[in-house]
């Protein structure tokens, strides 16, 4: 990686994101990658996107699938994010997952999931912007998301509103 690319990666990393698992069944086995580039795109039609590097050796086997699952990892799933984001190794070893009848692979206990088909792939620099059409989805309000920021996995703290309310209560008590 060049010095400019390293600098871009550092500054891009200042933008906090969640972490998703993009996965499907290939010959009956789960195949997938971690992706922090997930973005909800459109409500009508329902579209979401993920940017996939041209260097990905896994994407070519995922892109031909009928369905692909996108799971938003929970705060307790840092190890899943690490495994799915590592190069090589058995990514799904020790990971609880399930597949749908159409072949999407979803991570058990995720904060949210989307069952998708590929709508469009747009070549964009050294990545492809992959636009997915959402066929089914759900979210668990009680599962906090995993956060990726400055190249590290993190968790959300209580909201600022709560912090503010606590500060206000302290001031009132004085
Ligand atoms: C937290 C995290 C987020 C990642 N986000 C992306 C991403 O948005 N797009 C991408 O192409 N690779 C991303 N990766 C890298 C992939 O998960 C994977 O390591 C890469 O595709 C190389 O593996 P492969 O050759 O099997 O595809 C991420 C890795 C980690 C750890």
From TrEMBL:
Gene3D superfamilies: Electron Transport, Fmn-binding Protein, Chain A (2.30.110.10). SUPFAM superfamilies: FMN-binding split barrel. Residues 12-155 form the Flavin reductase like domain. InterPro entries: Flavin_Rdtase-like_dom (IPR002563), NADH-dep_flavin_reductase (IPR050268), Split_barrel_FMN-bd (IPR012349). It holds the Pfam family Flavin_Reduct. Keywords: Oxidoreductase. Belongs to the non-flavoprotein flavin reductase family. This is Flavin reductase family protein.
């Amino acid at each position: 990686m060049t010095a400019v690319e390293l600098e871009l990666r550092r500054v891009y990393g200042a933008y906090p994101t969640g972490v998703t698992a993009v996965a499907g069944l290939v010959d009956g086995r789960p195949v997938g990658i971690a992706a922090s580039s997930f973005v909800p795109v459109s409500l009508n039609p329902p579209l979401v996107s993920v940017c996939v590097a041209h260097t990905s050796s896994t994407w070519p086997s995922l892109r031909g699938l009928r369905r692909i699952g996108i799971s938003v990892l929970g705060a307790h799933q840092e190890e899943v994010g690490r495994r799915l984001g590592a190069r090589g190794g058995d990514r799904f070893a020790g990971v609880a997952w399930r597949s749908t009848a159409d072949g999407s692979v979803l991570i058990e206990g995720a904060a949210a999931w989307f069952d998708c088909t590929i709508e469009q792939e747009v070549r964009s620099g050294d990545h492809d912007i992959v636009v997915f059409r959402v066929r089914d989805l759900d979210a668990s309000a009680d599962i906090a998301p995993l956060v990726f920021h400055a190249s590290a996995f993190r968790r959300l703290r209580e909201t600022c509103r709560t912090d503010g309310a606590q500060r206000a209560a302290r001031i009132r008590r004085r």
